[in-house]
Amino acid sequence: MIYVLNGPNLNRLGTREPDIYGKTTYQDLVDMCQTVADDLGASVTIRQTNAEHEMLEWLHAAADEGADVVLNPGAWTHYNIAIRDACAMLRGKLIEVHISNVHQREEFRHHSVISAVATGVIAGLGIDGYRLALEHICR
Ligand code: DQA
């Protein structure tokens, strides 16, 4: 099982700052990830939460399973050490994905506390970043 996990505010895709995040809705993102996984013959579970404890529980379960994770931690990227510590427990691959190019944006988005424990990072390619992450994991 591959987990695609999305953090806070990503359920608002489509209406949230469309100039930055595009007009694709969260449901479109879910459908795209499912289609990509089906084409790759992979099993995927796609989730979003605004609650830190829920994300931590999902990461713990992925760690226990040794599963690969595609994670867009949203704003948690920049400050959440508990999420980072849970990411450090993962035994499979961890691909950190950002829809926007965080390095082109405000200074506080330039640093990720997650990247040092990630296998790799994709930023600025829109929702295509999720497809690339899934393809990499399945390669
Ligand atoms: C984001 C970038 C973060 O800085 C921001 O807080 C988000 C989304 C992205 O996908 O570009 O919520 O992770």
UniProtKB/TrEMBL annotation:
Highest taxon, organism lineage: Bacteria
Enzyme nomenclature, EC number: 4.2.1.10
Pfam families, per database record: DHquinase_II (PF01220)
Any one Gene Ontology BP term: aromatic amino acid family biosynthetic process
Family annotation (InterPro entries): DHquinase_II, DHquinase_II_CS, DHquinase_II_sf
Catalysis performed (reactions): 3-dehydroquinate = 3-dehydroshikimate + H2O
Site entry: Transition state stabilizer: 16
Keywords of this entry: Amino-acid biosynthesis, Aromatic amino acid biosynthesis, Lyase
Family: Belongs to the type-II 3-dehydroquinase family.
Record's subunit section: Homododecamer.
Protein name: 3-dehydroquinate dehydratase
UniProt gene name: aroQ
